[in-house]
Amino acid sequence: MSQTAAGIIFIASLILAIALVHKPLGDYMARVYTGLRHNRVERLVYRLVGVRPDAEQRWGVYARSLLAFSLISILVVYGLQRLQDKLFLSLGFAPVPDHVAWNTAISFVTNTNWQAYSGESTMGHLVQMAGLAVQNFVSAAVGMAVAVALIRGFARRGSETVGNFWVDLVRGSLRILLPIAFVGALVLVAGGLVQNFTGPHEITTLTGGVQNLTGGPVAGQEAIKELGTNGGGFYNTNSSHPFENATTWTNWFEIFLILVIPFALPRAFGRMVGQLRQGYAIVAVMATLAVLSVVLLNVFELAGNATVPQAIGAAMEGKEVRFGASNSATFAAATTLTSTGAVNSFHDSFTPLGGMMTLLNMMLGEVAPGGVGAGLYGMLILAVITVFVAGLMVGRTPEYLGKRIGAREMKLASLYFLVTPVLVLTGTAVAMANEAGLAAMLNNGPHGFSEILYAFTSASNNNGSAFGGVTVNTPWYDVALGLCMVLGRFLPIIFVLALAGSLAAQKPVPASAGTLPTHRPQFVGLVVGVTIIVVALTFLPALALGPLAEGIH
Amino acid sequence: MSAQTLEAPQAPRRVGGGLLDPRQLLASLPDAARKLNPATLWRNPVMFIVEVGAAATTILAFTDPSFFAWAIAVWLWLTTLFANLAEAVAEGRGKAQAATLRAAKRDTTARRLRARTGFDWDQVGATELRQGDFVVVEAGEIIPGDGDVVEGIASVDESAITGESAPVIRESGGDRSAVTGGTKVLSDRIVVQITQKPGESFIDRMIALVEGANRQKTPNEIALNILLAALTIIFLVTTITMQPMAIYAKAVNPGVADSLALTADGVSGVVLISLLVCLIPTTIGALLSAIGIAGMDRLVQRNVLAMSGRAVEAAGDVSTLLLDKTGTITLGNRQAADFMPAPGANHGELAAAAQLASLADETPEGRSIVVYAKETYGLRERAPGELTHAHWVPFTAQTRMSGVDVDGRQVRKGAATAVMKWIREHGGHPTEQVGHLVDGVSASGGTPLVVGEVADGKARVLGVIHLKDVVKQGMRERFDEMRRMGIRTVMITGDNPLTAKAIADEAGVDDFLAEATPEDKLALIKKEQEGGRLVAMTGDGTNDAPALAQADVGVAMNTGTSAAKEAGNMVDLDSNPTKLIEIVEIGKQLLITRGALTTFSIANDIAKYFAIIPAMFAAVYPGLDALNVMRLASPQSAILAAVIFNAIVIVALIPLALRGVRYRPSSASKLLSRNLYLYGVGGIVAPFAGIKLIDLLIQFLPGMS
């Protein structure tokens, strides 16, 4: 079987699997977030934390709870790293330097999982499990909570409240992420991933070199790494390491885990607003963008426009032979389209246009399908903006799902979509105009520039993957990228929750023939168009000086 | 309500709508130039940025002169000027209208009564009048202020505000008591109680409205402004952050010679500002306020005064339309539609008797019987004077019938029960058949009139006249259109449910409210609003005032009472309730124009990038020349062409902004498709052609290669 045919089967089977799973999973998630009952474990948690699970919160309280929880999370992860030598299971590693600890704490709490460090040689098992792995669950649950709060904004009529953050957080973690991750980990163990507590093994390689191999609770962390669109690998080489991603088969399964929740959330959205077709429209937008991106990335990588790739049939530099060009491209698309950031190949070594696709995927704002929760709320914001312009064109005050998009809603939606482009472009520009920023570049010219652009795009969009080629583990980059991550995560969340609050307070306008239908292919096409055009207009100059300059001849 | 309806001649328009007159552009130039003042321009952030850019470019052109820099500077100033021109032209039309109104607002004096019932008066200036004062106005005098007639009846020339030259009757009591200051009494004497506060007369408000003096941004306009501001910020960030990236690009390609666009210091200021101005949504930013002013203006041209832009916008959102049956849906009067003879009588007998009984009946119903008899049976219309011995029996509320006694024969027509009783009293025995005929007419929503006679001592019923509410022509089509637009129409009538249903079915409204009282109306509006719907209605009576105030769009008839005019948020000077439908369409058109031009403006950016990015960077990265799909002559001509296109498109779209985009009632889906193709796809394609064309022309200018 040719590489192309294999690639096509790989993608088609993934689409099929996700299509099969998204309905039951979406319905299940809708039930989880709308259910009234608390199970015994949950009640225990609520009692320990001291919250009343049946008390509904206004958006402001919801946001404050979320921010407080995240702040505490950052402090805990930071503390665990700084004190790891004093605690157990440190594998003898020294305390993590302050700027790395700050960057890593922010990175994992914001669901970015940007790794300025090399996992196996920096973090002990305690930090990995009690710090990073815990955040892999809860940071993902936070994203879903925000999405659910926004859905409630659309679904509720004249309500002052948008739900209870603590309940959403606990249920998302315990009822959705934990069970799926558990099953996922078992499957991955079966697929050949390690799950143990061993320290470093010294191994002599075939060529006679010496290598240190560390074991660890890899499979468990791997499952949630993908499922929660986290992406922080146990090992530095992430999912290209055989212990993290053993075979083509586990590669397929990891991509499946990455995509399964983001693609199922629109179904939950449709369920919760009582109009399944609205969920289908949203999922159709995501799928259209995703398929476009996956296909283009595959084409660019398989076609490969340099001499060597053409000689061997595909651009294989930086890719694992186990996976091949196509499956690496598909993984790269999945990991950048969601805010995962796990990698099974070196994006830096992709063809210039293939690399540009990974950049563009993130620049879309992580919405196709995006991170768990974050993808849905990002996409709903884009839908709101599209509805506004299109709604005016049908001669009515724009409304989405019966909720009017007035000045306040537009202000919040506009602020949302301003945040990441401003962070990406400002961050990149400051790096390019600054000694500390330029000093870290290992490559020159447009490619070097792309690497920095990629770093800021990845951090600001909470993706976490790295193009590579930049020495980012310097105090300057750790601080700058940490700022991008924290602002890129929490500013949009505040705007989304405020939007949820103002939408929930509205009474819906009943739909009529004069209402813009938001479930038809027309609307799907429009959202796709608006997304691509807005992103293209924002980033074209930067892309022109990076991947386009390198890739067009 | 008068029978003045659909067929009523349109009032002459004061200022023509339609295409832009080039003279108007020229006349508005001074105003446009005045608007360059940054102290006022900052209220439009997009254009303010263009002006700042123009000023900066001018300075750059002074410090480092080149033809290119000067050309860009000039065109950036023109861009700002064109934007101001759009607003000035729109305001200019309003000012012209205000001038005609001001002419009506002459300094008048008033004869203020010392006591309401007395005859003693003082001569005072109109401006000294206070609410509650009584003034007396006689033929030939100008009414000094808005108020209600409390005594007398007069014919009034209201052409100053309505443009309609035929005089109207104003009388005390009832729904035709309101008079407007500045109008002229043509006959008789009336006493008016002043209801306005000084300086807040109807004409004052009209002047302020058409001039746009206290124009406030409407909710959708504010929301759109936020979006435009966000886009502007994004493009500001995009262009500013490009600079360090460009410097780096130039630095790693040391072999490339400096160009006009890119040097070691980065992209030149002039080019950077050009890119920014091309990217920010200048087209819609320039035209936004003109669109709003023109929307109000279109209403004024149809003789509707909206008290706020918010009301116009709400009109586009209306999802329930409450329409009075009489005068709006039906012609306002019942008309004879059929003669049905009773057993033992024939059509000819019945028609003759019906005509005879109606000759002296001056009510519209009576006239319609005579007309029907003439048109259908060829009976000559006889003047009452012809029958010298006739004794005419007029209609009274007690007898509920009218007729004539002539040559020993008595003919009566009237309400079924009354005429039947009269027949029985004269020894007649109406057959059951007549009862069936009467019931049949009632069941079909009509009004039955029974015609009977007593001749030679014998009383008998001749037959039944079917009086019918005549639905105006074309109403069904209008309501079908409304339905396609997603608007529910509800007919309001005092008729019984049976009659109401028949007319509702015939007219094709979605629902009806029968035997409606003002309280029912108010309750219906509240119920609709509870469900999230916006309601529009018309009204003229004082008892309509609460409902007019509650409705999202309340259109008061100019013939109505002051209370109604005060309660509504629009006044129709023609007092034509059908106009509500047009108002809704204008509201929609206003929003569509904004949306369409926003889409166009954003879509334009794609082509501009394809012009400017290769112009800036193809020197360092030759591959980027592939983006120069328009094959523009040189970097300079490409950038200048984009800037010129950006400016010219504003002027080119001023007529569209003032006229509004074409609107045909249809479903949201169809509207969107059409506008997307026209303004979305068109907005992507048009600038490619436009910029290329301009480039072809300007490439021969000096400094362009």
From TrEMBL, chain A:
Record keywords, A-Z: Cell membrane, Ion transport, Membrane, Potassium, Potassium transport, Transmembrane, Transmembrane helix, Transport
Subcellular location: Cell membrane
Superkingdom to which the source organism belongs: Bacteria
One Gene Ontology cellular component: plasma membrane
Membrane-related topology note: Multi-pass membrane protein
Predominant cellular place of this UniProt entry's protein: membrane
Transmembrane stretches, start-end: 61-80, 87-109, 129-155, 176-194, 249-268, 280-300, 374-394, 415-433, 479-503, 523-544
InterPro entries: KdpA
Single Gene Ontology MF annotation: potassium ion binding
Family stated for the protein in its record: Belongs to the KdpA family.
Function, in words: Part of the high-affinity ATP-driven potassium transport (or Kdp) system, which catalyzes the hydrolysis of ATP coupled with the electrogenic transport of potassium into the cytoplasm. This subunit binds the extracellular potassium ions and delivers the ions to the membrane domain of KdpB through an intramembrane tunnel.
NCBIfam families membership: kdpA
Description of how the protein assembles with itself and partners: The system is composed of three essential subunits: KdpA, KdpB and KdpC.
Name of the protein in question: Potassium-transporting ATPase potassium-binding subunit
Gene name per UniProt: kdpA_1
UniProtKB/TrEMBL annotation, chain B:
Family: Belongs to the cation transport ATPase (P-type) (TC 3.A.3) family. Type IA subfamily.
Residue positions of the active site: D324 (4-aspartylphosphate intermediate)
EC main group: translocase
Topology term for the membrane: Multi-pass membrane protein
Originating organism: Acrocarpospora corrugata
Lineage of the organism: Bacteria, Bacillati, Actinomycetota, Actinomycetes, Streptosporangiales
Subunit annotation: The system is composed of three essential subunits: KdpA, KdpB and KdpC.
Spans traversing the lipid bilayer: 41-61, 67-86, 222-249, 269-293, 606-624, 636-656, 676-701
Name of the protein in its database record: Potassium-transporting ATPase ATP-binding subunit
